[in-house]
């Protein structure tokens, strides 16, 4: 559809952002033939692009403007003043088109936190039906199941008919997938349960968002938009950058959106709306759109030359991200890792042809090896963990008395002390990492070290450090200032240091240990610049490792937090923007607190619930899940 034709229409619903969440909502709203839905997406339609379709070619999309917003943070004091590159999908399907394809699940307490913070209807049991609604779980063959040890998966808790396909790769089994679960058991990890039960402690192979029949990425553009693309009541305009919403004041003192201004091919257009505008721009673009529209802090808006429509200084605040810290280990030559694909053009070309022609080979199989560890698992020798944790939270609160009006830090501290809750996600990547390349994500896994490597990484699960995203100009083409404030809260740095020391010890357990190379002194060979004998570090030394070797896990949330307004909120529990009659935000920016693991699954669930809220519907728990709960 041409931009001029799109702008001549008046839609019942306009969705700003055709990404992970936006296309879910577009598909669900368009199920009603009596309503019209228009979607504005800043990126292009790349359905059928092999760099997106191939499950393990995602890095080839990073730092390319035709796929990626190429965002950069401001220098981060907590990581030695370094700038971090933030990959965010600027393409139909958003970040679900360019992510790792890893598929995790929030814990029960993660989501019950949301309800406890004042968001009725957003607890674990409330969202569980929406996880199943978007998902089709494809169990592995019996032969693969034995290799990857996926007995922890409980099919009754998984979706059966959803658009997004979830599976384990049958086409390219890798050595680390077999070694990892046994290594974790030998390290003292518990036998894992299905994360859908509410807890995910243990080491396992987790599934990916890959369609096992086509061996292609399963993401919102392919599985929500494409099946609905020909509906007469659904219109999509790509390469259309939203500038701002057009408002008129109501007699009640709030404002209503009457249209959306956007740029297409350098020309400005306005499209009108009858019912609602739903902003699904993600954690960076959603607060940017609100501020460009005059909703935000007066000081931010005045500085950018924008008139204040709704005074809400919470817009763009509460930005939280998962940090990821890694150490690489050299692997014996007989155990292949991804280095060979990038160093030997012939082998790389063969692997690419294997995927393109036969849908097989290493580009079919993204990372599956991960685990979740509690504080007691991470550091069983920590003296009085309750006092230690609460002291760090209390000292920060005393120094920053107005930083947490919702009371999230004490709530999260309680969760960190819970032996059923993970404080770290541990990930094994079958490639070495160059963590000096924080500002250029596409170079993170390009390094000059000889041989084969793995990276043991630890990722935060629920950070207490909170930063901001704010515009610095009224120009919608200019990226906002992104400040995740990494390690601004001392508890985050403390837990990250303990976690990286723990992950390093995993290299000493079989069967992983026998796969790793040793130097002439019998020591493991690592990427650390100043390794200690036996890889034994003090807490302060570990903190320096963290500061030097931390990157983003690409899981930012919270910049339009769903909270009571007086406690830092931008949207209410129906996703409506405070001070407006017909504007909602539905994406990861509304998460009030962080959750463990890879967040794309929760974005889908939140979008499904958001669509039901807009339509006034409810998705309920199925009977087989009730039976399972009764059994356990």
TrEMBL record:
Q: Which UniProt keywords apply?
A: FAD, Flavoprotein
Q: Cross-referenced InterPro entries, in alphabetical order?
A: FAD/NAD-bd_sf, GMC_OxRdtase, GMC_OxRdtase_N, GMC_OxRtase_C
Please provide, alphabetically and separated by semicolons, the GO molecular function terms listed in this UniProt record: flavin adenine dinucleotide binding; oxidoreductase activity, acting on CH-OH group of donors
Q: Does the keyword Flavoprotein apply?
A: yes
| Residues annotated as binding FAD | 91, 242
Residues in Glucose-methanol-choline oxidoreductase N-terminal domain copies: 89-112
Q: Which SUPFAM superfamilies does the record associate with it?
A: FAD-linked reductases, C-terminal domain, FAD/NAD(P)-binding domain
Name its co-factor(s).
FAD
Pfam families in the cross-refs: GMC_oxred_C, GMC_oxred_N
Q: Which family does it belong to?
A: Belongs to the GMC oxidoreductase family.
Name the UniProt record assigns to this protein: Alcohol oxidase
């Amino acid at each position: 559809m041409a931009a001029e034709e799109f702008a001549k229409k008046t839609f019942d619903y306009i969705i700003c952002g055709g990404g992970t969440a936006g296309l879910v909502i577009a598909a669900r709203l368009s199920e009603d033939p009596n309503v019209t839905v228009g979607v504005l997406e800043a990126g292009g339609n790349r359905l059928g692009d092999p760099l997106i379709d191939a499950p393990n070619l995602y890095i080839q999309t990073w730092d390319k403007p035709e796929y990626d917003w190429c965002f950069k943070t401001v220098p981060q004091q907590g990581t030695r003043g370094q700038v971090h590159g933030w990959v965010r999908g600027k393409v139909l399907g958003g970040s679900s088109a360019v992510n790792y394809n890893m598929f995790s699940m929030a814990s029960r307490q993660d989501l019950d936190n949301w309800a406890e913070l004042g968001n009725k209807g957003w607890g674990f049991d409330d969202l569980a039906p929406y996880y199943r609604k978007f998902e089709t779980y494809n169990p592995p063959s019996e032969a693969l199941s034995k290799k990857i040890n996926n007995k922890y998966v409980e099919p009754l808790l998984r979706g059966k008919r959803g658009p997004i396909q979830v599976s384990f790769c049958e086409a390219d089994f890798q050595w680390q997938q077999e070694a990892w679960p046994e290594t974790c058991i030998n390290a003292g990890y518990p036998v894992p349960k299905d994360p859908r039960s509410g807890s995910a402690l243990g080491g396992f192979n987790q599934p990916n968002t890959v369609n096992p029949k086509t061996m292609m990425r399963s993401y919102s553009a392919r599985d929500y938009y494409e099946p609905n693309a020909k509906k007469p009541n659904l219109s999509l305009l790509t390469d259309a950058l939203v500038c701002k919403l057009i408002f008129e004041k109501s007699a009640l003192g709030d404002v209503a959106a009457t249209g959306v201004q956007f740029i297409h091919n350098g020309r400005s257009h306005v499209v009108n709306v009858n019912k609602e505008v739903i902003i699904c721009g993600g954690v960076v673009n959603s607060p940017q759109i609100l501020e460009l529209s005059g909703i935000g802090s007066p000081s931010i808006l005045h500085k950018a030359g924008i008139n204040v429509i709704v005074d809400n200084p919470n817009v763009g605040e509460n930005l939280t991200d998962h940090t990821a810290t890694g150490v690489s280990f050299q692997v014996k030559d007989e155990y292949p890792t991804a280095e060979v694909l990038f160093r030997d053009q012939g082998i790389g070309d063969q692997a690419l042809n294997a995927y393109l022609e036969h849908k097989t080979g290493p580009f079919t199989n993204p990372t599956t090896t991960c685990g979740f560890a509690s504080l007691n698992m991470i550091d069983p020798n920590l003296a009085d963990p309750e006092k230690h944790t609460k002291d760090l939270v209390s000292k920060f609160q005393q120094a920053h008395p107005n930083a947490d009006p919702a009371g999230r830090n004490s709530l999260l501290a309680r969760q960190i002390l819970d032996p059923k809750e993970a404080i770290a996600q541990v990930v094994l990547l079958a490639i070495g990492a160059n963590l000096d390349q924080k500002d250029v994500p596409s170079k993170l896994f390009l390094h000059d070290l000889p041989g084969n490597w793995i990276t043991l990484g630890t990722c935060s699960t629920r950070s207490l450090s909170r930063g901001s995203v704010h515009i610095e100009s009224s120009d919608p083409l200019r990226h906002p200032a992104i400040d995740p404030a990494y390690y601004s809260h001392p508890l985050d740095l403390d837990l990250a240091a303990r976690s990286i020391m723990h992950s390093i010890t995993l290299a000493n357990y079989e069967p992983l240990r026998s796969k790793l190379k040793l130097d002439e002194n019998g020591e493991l060979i690592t990427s650390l610049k100043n390794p200690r004998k036996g890889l034994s570090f003090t807490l302060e030394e570990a903190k320096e490792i963290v500061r030097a070797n931390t990157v983003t896990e690409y899981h930012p949330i919270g910049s339009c937090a769903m909270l009571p307004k007086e406690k830092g909120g931008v949207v209410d529990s129906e996703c409506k923007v405070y001070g407006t009659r017909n504007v909602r935000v539905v994406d990861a920016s509304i998460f009030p607190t962080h959750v463990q693991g890879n967040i794309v699954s929760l974005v889908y669930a939140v979008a499904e619930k958001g669509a039901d809220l807009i339509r006034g519907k409810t998705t309920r728990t199925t009977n087989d899940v009730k039976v399972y709960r009764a059994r356990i």
